[in-house]
C-alpha cells in the first residue's frame, strides 16, 4: 500500500477539507483497507466539483459536464440530495431551455465502517441525468457508490462518486441517444442550501412534465 508522504495544497480551505479527508480515511484503514487511501489521493487532485460522463463502447462519447450551479441539501426521504446544472437559474425557473444538463444525485444511505458496505461495488446513490438538446429531452437513470465527507446538515459537503452506470430511461420524440450505456465518475464539492435545492427541484419537475406532457419527477412533500 502506498504511503502518504507529502501533499501540496492550493488554498487554506482546500487544505483543511483534504486533510480531514485523509485523516478520516486513514482512520478507517483497519476496516476498509488501502482503497480509501487511493480515494484520498483522488480528492487531492480533484477537490473542485467535476463530473465525467462517458459512453461504454469501443469509441466512447464524452459529454462536457461543467456545472456552475451545484448544491446539496437534506431530504426527508433519503440521507441527502444533490443538484447540479449548467442552465442559468432564470432560464430554468421560466422553462425557457433549449440546451442544457441537469444532474440529480440522491444519497440513499451513508456508508458507516463496520455497519454498512464500504465498497465501490455497492449501491448507495441513485442518479438521474437529464440532457436537453435543441429542445429534445433524454432522461438517464442509474446507481452506484458515493463516499461523502460531511453531511447535508452541514454548510457544505464533498461526495466522491465512482462507477455509476447510466441507461436511457425516457426520451421525447427526436432525442438521439449517444450515451447508453454510460459511466459517471466525479466529485461534488459544494454548499448545502435547502432553499435553492427546492427551487431547482420544482423547476426541473415542471420542465420535464411540460416536455413529456405528463406529470413526472415530482415528489410530494
Arithmetic mean pLDDT: 79
The radius of gyration is 18 Å
The biggest beta sheet, please? 7 strands, mixed, barrel
Strand and helix order: HHHEEEEHEEEEEH
Total discrete domains = 2
Strand order of the largest sheet: 3-4-5-6-7-8-9
Main attributes?
single chain; 9 strands; 5 helices; globular; 221 residues; seven-stranded mixed β-barrel; alpha+beta
Verbal overview:
The protein is of the alpha+beta class and 221 residues long. It has two domains: 1-47, no CATH class; 50-212, no CATH class. Helix content is 25%, strand content 35%. It has helices spanning 12-27, 29-32, 35-45, 89-94, 194-212; strands at 50-55, 62-63, 69-73, 80-85, 100-107, 125-133, 136-149, 156-171, 182-192. A seven-stranded mixed beta barrel has the order 3-4-5-6-7-8-9. Strand 1 (50-55) and strand 2 form a beta hairpin. The N and C termini lie far apart (47 Å). Residues 1-46 have low confidence and may be disordered.
Amino acid at each position: 500500500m502506498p504511503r502518504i508522504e507529502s501533499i501540496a495544497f492550493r488554498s487554506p480551505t482546500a487544505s483543511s477539507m483534504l486533510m480531514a479527508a485523509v485523516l478520516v480515511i486513514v482512520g478507517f484503514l483497519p476496516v476498509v483497507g488501502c482503497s480509501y487511501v487511493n480515494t484520498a489521493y483522488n480528492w487531492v487532485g480533484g477537490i473542485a466539483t467535476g463530473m465525467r460522463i462517458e459512453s461504454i463502447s469501443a469509441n466512447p462519447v464524452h459529454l462536457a459536464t461543467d456545472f456552475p450551479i451545484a448544491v446539496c441539501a437534506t431530504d426527508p426521504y433519503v440521507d441527502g440530495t444533490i443538484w447540479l446544472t449548467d442552465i442559468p437559474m432564470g432560464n430554468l425557473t421560466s422553462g425557457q431551455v433549449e440546451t442544457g444538463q441537469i444532474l440529480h444525485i440522491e444519497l440513499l444511505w451513508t456508508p458507516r465502517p463496520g455497519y454498512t458496505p464500504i465498497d465501490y461495488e455497492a449501491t448507495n446513490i441513485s442518479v438521474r441525468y437529464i440532457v436537453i438538446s435543441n429542445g429534445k429531452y433524454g432522461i438517464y437513470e442509474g446507481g452506484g457508490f458515493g463516499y461523502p465527507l460531511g453531511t447535508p446538515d452541514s454548510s457544505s459537503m464533498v461526495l466522491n462518486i465512482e462507477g455509476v452506470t447510466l441507461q436511457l430511461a425516457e426520451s421525447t420524440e427526436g432525442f438521439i441517444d449517444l450515451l447508453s450505456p454510460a459511466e459517471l465518475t466525479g466529485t461534488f464539492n459544494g454548499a448545502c442550501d435547502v432553499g435553492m435545492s427546492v427551487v431547482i427541484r420544482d423547476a426541473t419537475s415542471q420542465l420535464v412534465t411540460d416536455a413529456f406532457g405528463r406529470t413526472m419527477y415530482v415528489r410530494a412533500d
